Amino acid sequence: MPKQKTHRGAAKRFRLTGRGKIRRNKAFKSHILTKKSPKRKRNLRKATLVSDADTPLVRRMLKV
Length: 64
Known about the structure:
The chain is α+β, with helices and mostly antiparallel strands. Helix content is 33%, strand content 12%. A hairpin with a 5-residue loop joins strand 1 and strand 2.
């Protein structure tokens, strides 16, 4: 049986931390930024961790 391929879209969006958790960037930062407050935009710049419920699905896509 051939090797399973990594989901390339997921590989570009997620990366592993040193402890094996999965980091992601926040959504809603690409356009229509004029109505969003500076504080909100500043907080959207920070990366966060994938939720516990979604972690198994992302791991499966990344083949980790």
